[in-house]
Request: fold
Amino acid sequence: MIEVKHLTKKYGNHLALDDLSFTIEKGQIYGFLGPNGAGKSTTMNIMTGYIGADQGDVLIDGHNILEEPEAAKKCIGYLPEIPPLYLDMTVLEYLSFVSELKQIPKNKQTIEVEKVMNLVKLMDVSNRLVRNLSKGYRQRTGLAAAVLGFPDIIILDEPTVGLDPKQIIEIRQLIRTLSKNHTVILSSHILAEVQEICDYVMIISKGHLVASGTPAELKKLSHGKDSIELTIKADPQSIQSVLGSISDIQNVSWKGQTKDSCNIIIETSNNAQKVCEELSLAFAIQRIPVTRLNIKKASLEDIFLELTEHLEEKGDSHHDSNL
Reply:
């Protein structure tokens, strides 16, 4: 459906995208995840034809976005981070205007506008001026404009930024609804949002694609994997003697000590549940009380930090080598 090939983009001396390539398949929700300044918005602006790349190509359903912009853009509905709304129009007037821009046949415009207003729940405010809408309703209006004409691909740049928790939940529900009939691509720097609604995640940092996969697949990339948190009522020497008898422990981090207890985190090379059972039995044999035992699952946040920090370290190292 979308092929992005070797995109490079510079703003002055700043390299925003560095040989970025990926493919988007039909019928899923894709998430671009990355810190601010990672290149997410630049990528989306190039994909939608808003700006050109210095090098590389974007093919939308076989159409090159620069060589066949009209054919390519007919496949796309785009919601920028700040929706380009006309504040002195009513919601109905604005969407009717957008339907003309999208060259929807005149005999279908009224039906199409009404359909998208029902979809994103704008009927109650259809005759209100856009300037008098809340941020959440303005976002809905921008989303309705993106969906008009029902293109195959919906691209959303930071769709929930600046919204309150209730509005965020409503927009996420709308995205899930859209995904039933459209391929949805969204960018976000909010980990929970991507994990909550995306089928496939692409992590971008400093213009590079550092990892991609389903949230479950990305979790497996974490070097730390699952860890075990314990509070043990004993001195460090006694604890260490018990831990030494368990072969699947990779690393032990000592996280603090009270008068009679120690807090530790264990990284394991094996099934964390199995190691927990061995730990419980080993400490019980030595009559050492374990007052807290908890398995901490590796999260998307762990892998995100791990990968982006690794890239920053490589960048700093490369920078240092050129000094």
